[in-house]
Write a structure and sequence with these properties.
Layout (H helix, E strand, L loop, with lengths): L1 H13 L5 E6 L2 E10 L10 E7 L10 E4 L30 H13 L9 H9 L1 H15 L2
Antiparallel strand pairs: 1-2, 2-3, 3-4
GO molecular function, one term: ubiquitin conjugating enzyme activity
Keywords: ATP-binding, Nucleotide-binding, Transferase, Ubl conjugation pathway
Pfam families: UQ_con (PF00179)
Length: about 150
């Protein structure tokens, strides 16, 4: 397991997804810091979001655990603790997938949130029924918490 994690970390360090940087938290190969820049054209554009990624002992047979450290107004992320809807990346997990897959999926979710997998139903409702108000609030949170 450790050699696979080292290989993934090395690959992500030298060839990261766009708007992304990864690093270890201390010397622990199982605790990563992921920094995402809100994609251009999204409600999160220009925001700097830190995520905590923990690689489980039975990786790659179980997906990594990921949560937002930076507060974010998003239907798929709990506003209070940054927990991400596990349906987004854990429900179809297989050992052939990797941490890059999870990061790219989360970047995609910043561009196109998934209201059908909401952990914040009120935000999902606002997104679907009053999109401009949702975008305005998301941008306000970016300015307040992700600068």
């Amino acid at each position: 397991m450790q050699s696979r994690i080292n290989k993934e970390l090395q690959e992500l360090s030298t060839n990261p997804p766009e708007n992304c940087a990864v690093s270890l938290v201390g010397d622990d190969i199982t605790h990563w810091r992921v920094n995402l820049v809100g994609p251009e054209g999204s409600a999160y554009e220009g925001g700097n979001f830190e995520l905590a990624l923990t690689v489980p002992a039975n990786y790659p047979f179980r997906a990594p655990d990921v949560r937002f450290v930076t507060r974010i107004y998003h239907p798929n992320v709990k506003s209070d603790d940054g927990a991400i809807c596990t349906e987004l990346y854990q429900s179809d997990w297989s050992p052939t997938k990797n941490i890059r897959h999870v990061i790219e999926l989360l970047l995609s979710t910043l561009i196109t949130p998934s209201p059908e997998h909401a952990v914040e139903p009120e935000i999902a409702q606002q997104m679907m029924n009053s999109h401009e108000a949702y975008v305005a609030t998301a941008r306000q949170w970016v300015n307040q918490y992700a600068r």
